[in-house]
Design a protein that fits this description.
serine protease, S8 family serine peptidase, single chain, Peptidase_S8_Ser-AS, 22 strands, 494 residues, 4-stranded antiparallel β-sheet, 8-stranded mixed β-sheet
Length: 494
Amino acid sequence: MQPFKPSQPRPALNESAPPDAQLRIAVTFKGRASAGPTKLAARLSSRSILSFEPAPGEMETAIEALRQRGFTVSGRGRMTVSVRGTVAQFEETFGTRLTPFNLSQKQGYASDRVFYPAKGAPWHPDPALSALIDDAYIQWPHIYLADSGVSARPPAVGYYHLDVLKDVPAKLNATHIHKERHHGEGIRVAMIDTGFDHSHPFFTRNGFTSSIVLAPSATNRRTDPGSHGTGESANVFAVAPKVTFIGVKLGNDADPNGGASILEGFQEALKHKPHVITVSMCYDLRDDDGVSELKELPNGLKPLEAEIQAAIASGIVVVFSAGNGHYAFPASMPEVLCVGGTFVAENGAMKASDYASAFTSGIYSGRHVPDVCGLVGMLPNADYIMLPVPPGAEIDTGNAAHDGTTAGDGWAVFSGTSASAPQIAAVCALLLQKNPKLTPAEIKALLVRTAIDVRDGSASPASDPEGKGILAGPGIDGATGAGLVDAFAAWQQA
């Protein structure tokens, strides 16, 4: 994930939305309630969400009605349906007008524009369809959380950094678990990201195996032009080398604007019955002032919130990156395991990463981000962990300008909370291997109770309304939560 970078507000373009442009749309249902989850006055929880589960046949009836209006189903979860349709179909069905909005590429958005109703746009949905669904929301592009002849061995660089296979498990104290012959066997970890080029010699020569599936509109299981998923997935294998790894690819190789949404990827992940889902992406819920967080969750994100709540209620551990200076959602959801960043120096000294987000949510009362930390580098680029990437792809070439590697060599030094989330997801897999009965809440409590206190440093200034960065200190603090995860200490108590 790239760090937060100030940019101008999204300008509405002085043009009409092209009628044939494709939209990603989330559909919610009322279930047993009088109004759907997007209309609920109170916050959703893993208990209340179950009242919005569609009755048998309700979802199928709505799907058929959507199909009759020209929409195509792209994903289906327990609580929501994802559909695709054109601007013209959406405008006709919901009696509205869509406007093109530019998105700053400084932020690492998956697309460069979005088509959305402008403020004050009409909204007169088809009454027959309205009787079958709660509402429909166009999904905004998400933000990937990276910083910007291949050998299985990484190149040498002239500064302190971590070897992903040796140093990451050692500093998270997972090597003692490996000595007990626990490597994550039998636990399914689903990672949702750009893609996964696991033909890289790092994966093949170390015997790491995976299954790659495509989210709606994603293409080619074997490639990853965005590089992000390939590199960050190495963190999973470093900590839990024998998990059943399920990579859910969102990227469309031919069309950067044509890939899947996080919701569509999450719905695809659920099909494979994972024990753990890890996501190194976010939506930045920054207010128009550019420095503080929104006070309410946008309705368009409530379908994703509902699907995550239902997954956690069913026993799936859901892990999200805290953000790299972002006010990151879904990381800010209280039930999610939210992972921030700690930097461990060559001499073992620890401090909060000033690249990683830390904030108290204005949306979820009492919620502080992060819960715990993994390993993350420091500003300006978080060059910290040597990771394998597709040679010649985005991160391989982009990072070569500052990380000491060579463009085209298939290696890059990077981290961000994109790295820390899969690290801790893999720790969760080790805990579940030892005790499959652990609930998501129990796993979070274990990690918090046994984490190593981080007392120095400060988090990203971009996630602090005062622009300073929240300070670390003794005990549970604002910058690092409970501190750096101690995998073996948690495993002993599992």
